[in-house]
Amino acid sequence: MLLLTADDIRARAETLAAAINESRGWRAGLVAGSSAIGGGSAPGVELPTWLVAIAKDGLTPDSLEERLRRLTPPVIARIERDQLLLIFGPYCPIRIASSRRY
């Protein structure tokens, strides 16, 4: 992911958000942010990125995060400002957009 620019990540994030928004009961939008690099091996070093804020009707960010984490493979996200944010890394499966298990 270090080889991708913020613009590359934004394009991927837009594609994912559009797919999620096509699913009934789901909402998604882009959020500018930053992500730590190196899985924590470079403390304090962050790169600008784009995140996808998602929501599902009837679920709080906490409960949605818990459900996504229980998938196989798990979808890893973080909660900031009462929004569930998908982090673009090697573990961010696009298949969440078509998940109907909720």
Key structural traits:
2 helices, 4 strands, 25% helix, 102 residues, single chain, alpha+beta, 4-stranded antiparallel sheet
Describe, in plain words, how this protein is organized in 3D:
The protein has 102 residues and is of the alpha+beta class. The protein has a four-stranded antiparallel beta sheet with strand order 1-2-4-3. The radius of gyration is 13 Å and the shape is globular. The chain is built from two helices and four strands.
Sheet with most strands: 4 strands, antiparallel
Query: How much of the polypeptide forms β-strand, as a percent range?
Result: 25-35%
Low-confidence stretches: 95-100
Q: Output the number of helix runs.
A: 2
Q: In one word, what is the shape?
A: globular
- Computed Rg: 13 Å
Q: Which sequence of SSEs, written as H and E, runs from N to C?
A: HEEHEE
- Class by SSE composition: alpha+beta
User: Helicity range of the residues?
Assistant: 10-25%
Compute the average pLDDT: 83
Number of strands: 4
The strand line-up of the biggest sheet is 1-2-4-3
Span between termini: 30 Å
Short description:
With 102 residues, the protein is of the alpha+beta class. It has helices spanning 6-21, 61-69; strands at residues 26-36, 46-56, 77-80, 83-86. The protein has a four-stranded antiparallel β-sheet.
Task: Note the topology.
Layout: H1 6-21, E1 26-36, E2 46-56, H2 61-69, E3 77-80, E4 83-86
Antiparallel strand pairs: 1-2, 2-4, 3-4
